[in-house]
Amino acid sequence: MELPLELVNALRLAQRVTVLTGAGVSQESGLRTFRDAQDGLWAQYRPEDLATPQAFQRNPKLVWDWYAWRREKVCQAKPNPAHYALAAMAKRIPKFTLITQNVDGLHQAAGSPRVIELHGNIRRVRCSVCAQVLSQWDQPPDDVPRCPSCNGLLRPDVVWFGETLPQAELEAAFEAAQHCELFFSIGTSGVVQPAASLAYFAQQHGARIVEINAEPTPLTPFADFALQGKAGEILPALVKSAFLAQIT
Questions:
Q1: Sheet of 133-134: strands edge to edge?
Q2: CA gap 62, 46 in Å, rounded
């Protein structure tokens, strides 16, 4: 794969790199994007109608079961070469920050040490009453599990429509965007706010923008390097070219 030599050199010399990933990266691991058509039992539902606090309040079992189904799909998925390439990049760049809109935990599974999760993680749950976060929980048959501390209903630890992003993660993301030399936007549509504004914010503070996506986005005309194709092909080639590292 032929890559811009200017980009290869810029990555090789960079001390501060920030990366934002979206659903396109997970899609290469076989996971449907959030708005893809559902299948089986869930084909009759719109995701936008289930991923809300109001839906959980109306029918917590329905929402829990949908997320349990999605969680099972996530747990069956494996990281792809894009995930591994970013983990390799993190080892070679002194100040590397990985921000993701994905909730599947595949970056961590690939070995990325620190990930800013803007939208939470479907592998965790939190109490709908006291907000305690749990990585493991008891699943009663045919019911929604409850918090061991306050007995409130447990819900997925993800950001639903109508909810704000976690403040600490959002502040850390903008801090990393402000101080990086290179900002990568990978597999994201560039329209979901506030994540979509990170690239422009980085550019305003002097960063060069690299977009890797299967198709053009609103960011494409503003990117210094716009690479169209699969992240799982482009990123390993870029890491190999910049650092002479083979991604496995």
A1: 133-134, 120-127, 154-158
A2: 13
Structural domains of the chain sorted by starting position, each given as residue range(s) with its CATH number in brackets: 5-31+79-119+165-243 (3.40.50.1220), 40-76+128-158 (3.30.1600.10)
Q: Do residues 190 and 199 make contact, with C-beta atoms less than 8 angstroms apart?
A: yes
Q: 107, 119, 179, 205: which is the annotated catalytic residue? A: 119
Q: Is 114 exposed, middle or buried (0-12, 13-18, 19+ CB in 10 A)?
A: exposed
Minimum mean pLDDT among 13-17, 30-34, 69-73, 126-130: which range? 30-34
pTM score above 0.90: yes
Q: Is 119 annotated as catalytic?
A: yes
- pLDDT, residue 191, reads 84
CA atoms of 22 and 24, how far apart (whole Å): 6
Q: How far apart are CA 79 and CA 36, in angstroms?
A: 20
